[in-house]
Amino acid sequence: MTLHSPPPVTPIERFPEQVAFHRTELAVILSIYGRMVAAGEWRDYGISSLREVAVFSIFRRTAEIPLYRIEKRPKLRGKQGMYAVIGTGGQVLKRGHELKPVLRVLERKLIRAVKD
C-alpha cells in the first residue's frame, strides 16, 4: 500500500485557525451599536471568534437570545459575500461583500427607534 501525502499548502492558501473581526470592522459595528444603545434599543453584545466564522451578537437583555448576529465568513468571500446580518429566527436579513452596506439594514431600525 502506498501512502500519498497531500500537496504542501502555501501560506496564501492557508486559512487562519480562528476568524476574527479586524479593528476597522469593529469600529464600524461598534458605531452603530453605540447609537442603538443610546436610543435604548440594545443593551449588551458578545463576540465569538471561531474556526470558520466570527460573530458579533447583539442582545436587548443579557439573558436572552441575540436579536441580531453579524457574521464574518471569509470562505464566502468569492461567492455570496463574507458579511451577513442574521435575525432572531435565523433568517438572513442582508448579505454582502462589504460591511457598511450590509449594516444598513440595522440603521433602518435606528431611524425607526429615534422617530417613535
Automatic annotation (TrEMBL):
Pfam families recorded: DUF2794 (PF10984)
InterPro entries: DUF2794
Protein's name in the database: DUF2794 domain-containing protein
Organism: Sulfitobacter aestuarii
Lineage start: Bacteria, Pseudomonadati, Pseudomonadota, Alphaproteobacteria, Rhodobacterales
